[in-house]
Each structure stands twice: as structure tokens, then as C-alpha cells.
Specification:
Elements (H helix, E strand, L loop, with lengths): L1 E8 L4 E8 L2 E8 L9 H11 L8 H15 L7 E8 L5 E6 L5 E6 L4 E5 L5 E5 L6 E6 L6 E6 L3 E6 L5 E6 L5 E6 L5 E6 L4 E5 L5 E5 L6 E6 L5 E6 L3 E6 L4 E7 L5 E6 L6 E5 L5 E4 L5 E5 L5 E5 L5 E5 L6 E6 L5 E9 L8 E10 L2
Antiparallel strand pairs: 1-2, 2-3, 4-29, 5-6, 6-7, 7-8, 9-10, 10-11, 11-12, 13-14, 14-15, 15-16, 17-18, 18-19, 19-20, 21-22, 23-24, 24-25, 25-26, 27-28, 28-29
């Protein structure tokens, strides 16, 4: 095995090792979930070297620098507020979802116009339009932390894998018998999970384009899914009012979470995977954690997004400005930018065309 490079993962704290074995490029992670600003770096590095043969004496200084950077990030306070930065009109037909890359330098939008668009966050400039689906592009995601690929899921029952740099389509994943409405990459960027109105979730191999497994057990549409940070578990939320936790290697359902009185709209692990947060049509809302796990963002039919403190449950800020239901929202990886999206109608001459409003909010320093 030959170590090629390190990738730093701030949340949850860890170091990704990219290495070559048998001519193939692979990755594995050193998870540092117990790291704090007070952790003794020398003792930690010594423990890492005992368990990880890729960390040789020549790499110790690099690893120490990475650990110090993680400690500095963990020590930062999180008490700033957000303000409106930019509003964009992205598509002529309704948007379906929004997502950031890891750095927040670009974001993507899916739409009823059958396309996915890549945007520059700072300028609002459109970078690429990904075309090829034959129906609504509903589910979208970057393969963070790498950010070089995009997956799109469509009402045409397929999922496509794209190059961020060129806009080229690598694979088209076929196998679902109904609309794909959610998807996610695993942290290693080796698998894509798709959830469908056919009540199943499927796992796909990114390199070969082949189906790996089908997860069956829900009795209604799967509307949301999320990998844990290790990539060995997947959580799915369904219109059957339940949430299921799956073992990825075996495809076995581990737990079924029951408690909501309405359809599940969103599910997500927190940063250390000790919690799962769920949103529902039972007067809950669409939700997402920030990468640090300290804040929850909720998007609602009341035309607002709200920022919540995880520990206290207190609402820290109400983000207003949209004129209709907010159906999609996301943090960037650093947690200092939020994107929200909604549809609204503009009266035209003899018609009422759909427009879509994207709003970007930045943190005040």
C-alpha cells in the first residue's frame, strides 16, 4: 500500500487517507470523534501509528499539523447570525432541491425543466446545465467531501452520475420502477443510494454503474435517506410514517423507528451519528443539521426558515423573505452559508408561469 494524500474532515473530526493498493485508488478514515482542543497531540499520534501502518515516521509532522487544525476548528465559537446575501431566479419551471459542494463555492439546483444546474455561489453565475433526463430532476447531491461528481435522481425512474468539471454523464442507473425522489453518496464516494416511490432504496456502485443491493421493507414511498459518517449504515424515511435503519454491507434492516403521525419528509444523522433527526407532515418540517451538529435548520410551509440550537432547542433566528412555502434548504460545510428555495407564481398575460426563488444567507462576522 502506498499513501497518496491526506484529506481533512472537520465534521465529524477525522483524517481521510487516500492510498494505492494493487493499482487501485482507495480511501479509509481515521475517526477522531473524541478529539477536543485539550487533547494531547503527541499521545494521539502515537496511538494512531500503532493502529495505522500507512502513518510512517515521515508522515508524523503532516498528521500533527492536521490534528492541530482540527483542534482549532473545534474551538471556534458558533454565535453569529445570518443575513440575506443574494436572490436568484434559477429556472423557468419550479425547482425541486438545492445542495452545496463541501466548500460552499458552488451549489446545484434541480428542476421540473428536467435539468440540473451548477452555480457559482459568489457571483451567481451559471456554470453548467446537466441535460439528459426525460422527466423532472427531483433529487440532487455532490459527492462531498470530494465534490467532483454530482448525482441526479429523476421522475424518469433513473439516476445519473455526472462530472462537475465537464458536465459529462458517467453512468445512468436503471432499476427502479417508479420516480426517484431522494439520493445520497456514501462518505467514501463509492456508492450512491437512491430512494423511490416504488417503496425501495437501491445501492449503486459508482465505478461500474451496477446495482449493489435493493433495500425492501417500507410499505410506502421512500422520501428521504442519509448515510452515517462511516458509510456502514443508511437511514430511510417513508410515507408509511416510519424511519428504517439499514446495515449497508448486508442490506439488512436493523431498526424501525415509529412515532410520527404523518408522512416522513426528511431524515438525517447528526455529525457523530449519535442522533437521527426526522421531519414529518404531522406539522413538523423539512430539516437538516449543520456539519458541526450544533445547529438545525428547518424549512416550512409558513414561508420561513428557522435556525435552532441543538442542545437547548431554542430558536436562534427566523429567516424571512420568501413569498411562498420553502421546500428545500441546506448549510454549506463550514456552516456559514445557508441556501433556501421556494416556488412562487407571477401573473402573466393570459398565463401564470412558475418562477423559482433561491436565497443565499451569509453569517455576519
Amino acid at each position: 500500500m502506498k499513501l497518496k494524500r491526506f484529506l481533512l474532515r472537520y465534521y465529524p473530526p477525522g483524517i481521510i487517507l487516500e492510498y494505492e493498493k494493487g493499482g487501485a485508488l482507495k480511501t479509509k478514515s481515521i475517526d477522531l470523534l473524541d478529539l477536543s482542543p485539550e487533547t494531547d497531540t503527541e499521545e494521539l499520534i502515537s496511538a494512531i501509528r500503532k493502529s495505522e501502518p500507512l502513518i510512517t515516521a515521515s508522515r508524523v509532522d503532516q498528521v500533527k499539523l492536521l490534528i492541530v487544525r482540527l483542534q482549532e476548528k473545534l474551538g471556534q465559537q458558533d454565535n453569529r447570525r445570518f443575513s440575506l446575501f443574494k436572490a436568484l431566479q434559477a429556472h423557468i419551471l419550479p425547482l425541486t432541491n438545492v445542495a452545496f459542494n463541501k466548500s460552499g463555492s458552488s451549489f446545484i439546483t434541480g428542476s421540473y425543466d428536467r435539468t440540473c444546474k451548477i452555480w457559482d455561489t459568489a457571483s451567481g453565475e451559471e456554470l453548467h446545465t446537466l441535460e439528459g433526463h426525460r422527466n423532472v430532476v427531483y433529487a440532487i447531491a455532490f459527492n462531498n467531501p470530494y465534490g467532483d461528481k454530482i448525482a441526479t435522481g429523476s421522475f424518469d425512474k433513473t439516476c445519473r452520475l455526472w462530472s462537475v468539471e465537464t458536465g459529462k454523464c458517467f453512468h445512468t442507473f436503471r432499476g427502479h420502477t417508479a420516480e426517484i425522489v431522494c439520493l445520497a453518496f456514501n462518505p467514501q464516494s463509492t456508492l450512491v443510494a437512491t430512494g423511490s416511490m416504488d417503496t425501495t432504496a437501491k445501492l449503486w456502485d459508482i465505478q461500474t454503474g451496477e446495482e449493489v443491493s435493493t433495500l425492501t421493507g417500507h410499505s410506502a414511498e421512500i422520501i428521504s435517506l442519509s448515510f452515517n459518517t462511516v458509510g456502514d449504515q443508511l437511514v430511510t424515511g417513508s410515507f408509511d410514517h416510519t424511519v428504517s435503519l439499514w446495515d449497508v454491507p448486508s442490506g439488512r434492516r436493523v431498526h424501525t423507528l415509529i412515532g410520527h403521525r404523518g408522512e416522513i419528509s426528511s431524515v438525517q444523522f447528526n455529525w457523530d451519528c449519535s442522533l437521527i433527526i426526522t421531519g414529518s407532515m404531522d406539522k413538523s418540517c423539512r430539516i437538516c443539521f449543520n456539519a458541526q451538529g450544533s445547529r438545525v435548520l428547518t424549512a416550512s410551509a409558513d414561508k420561513t426558515a428557522r435556525l435552532w440550537d441543538v442542545q437547548s432547542g431554542v430558536c436562534l433566528q427566523v429567516l424571512e423573505g420568501h413569498t411562498d412555502e420553502i421546500f428545500s434548504s441546506a448549510f454549506n460545510y463550514e456552516g456559514d452559508t445557508i441556501i433556501t428555495g421556494n416556488m412562487y407564481l407571477l401573473s402573466g398575460l393570459g398565463s401564470i408561469p412558475f418562477q423559482f426563488s433561491i436565497k443565499l444567507a451569509l453569517r455576519k462576522m
